[in-house]
Amino acid sequence: MTDTELSAVLRRVGLTSAEPPSVAALTRLHQAFVERVPYETVEIQLGRVTSLDPAESLARILRGRGGYCFHLNGALAEVLRALGYHVTRHLGGVQMTPDAEPVINRHHLVLTVRDLPDSEDAWLVDAGLGDGLHSPLPLREGSYRQGPFTFRLRPSWIAPGGWRLEHDPRGSLHAMDFAPGPAGMPDFAERHVHLSTSPDSGFVRTFGVQRTDASGWDTLRALTLTRTEDTKKKTVLETPAEWFEALADVYGLTFEPDERDVLWRKAYEQHEAHVNPAVDPSS
Fold this sequence. Notes:
This is Arylamine N-acetyltransferase. By secondary structure, the chain is an alpha+beta fold.
């Protein structure tokens, strides 16, 4: 990554200059990234399978878009390396509900940062959970409060040497485990194709965008916009004007006319299928 590219990415997330590695600088970068780069599945809804190449993910982010964990954490790893951090990618997996089995199935890419000059800890860095961490966490067992939410870190019992992040109960998932060893982007290629194209994939079935800030989460699924803080506030965006206004104002996402037509139609049909499952929304 060139200095010009790095400066452009930092401007994209609202930072004015590069800082040398430290806990405070890492925290500022993580917070800025998750606040301004949305977790989104727009390209999947448009029927376009994206590359896992971090350079392409960074280019898409600079165009005002985001992505999901493979894109977001893949790109963030390159930014961190360019800033001088020691970054490792890890294989992860998400446990959606308490009743589900914990897994490390390569459905999630996780980052850790080590050797910070002002910390003996390794740090969990994860911009790819959607409604997830606002700040990085030291890899030490315990509970961590961020805004209205509480997360818990503990050693993973399915991956010796790995770690488990237990989500706040208001989140969209129950927990995430990751393996201790390093991973490369090709390790996620098969799962990326599945998540992007399979009819069983939630990314294919439902339009989704999320972001995190210091006081809560913003989640848009189909036509329902939810703001989660101490409580949840849900709003159904019933017109294209309301829907695209929210996408622009909350997530910074804007679209070409042909993209708008496709995205609104899909989100509307998904919403109708959810609220009226016996009715065919296309009829």
